[in-house]
Specification:
- This protein has 73 residues and is α+β, with helices and mostly antiparallel strands.
- 33% of the residues lie in helices and 27% in strands.
- The chain has a three-stranded antiparallel beta sheet with strand order 2-1-3, with helices on one face.
- Strand 1 and strand 2 form a beta hairpin.
Length: 73
C-alpha cells in the first residue's frame, strides 16, 4: 500500500486550466504536466475563450479504494 506522504508527492506541481466561457460559466481541468496544460489552454484560446493556467498543489484527503496486483488478476 502506498503511504499518504508518497501519494502527496505524486500530486505536487499539478496544473489547473481554467476556461472562462462567454456565458459566465467556468471549466476547470487538472493536468499533471505543463505541456498537457498548455495544449489544452491553446485549444481553448483558439476557440476564443479566456484561459488561465494555474500551478496548484493537490492534497490527498482519503483513499476511496485500493486494488493490489493480486486482486486485479
Amino acid at each position: 500500500m502506498t503511504s499518504n506522504a508518497t501519494i502527496s508527492e505524486l500530486f505536487k506541481g499539478a496544473f489547473a486550466v481554467v476556461v472562462n466561457y462567454p456565458s459566465g460559466r467556468y471549466q476547470r481541468r487538472v493536468f499533471m504536466t505543463i505541456a498537457a496544460a498548455e495544449k489544452a489552454a491553446r485549444r481553448a484560446t483558439e476557440r476564443g475563450h479566456e484561459v488561465e493556467v494555474v500551478l496548484v498543489h493537490l492534497e490527498p484527503v482519503a483513499t476511496v479504494t485500493s486494488i493490489d496486483a493480486e486482486e486485479a488478476a
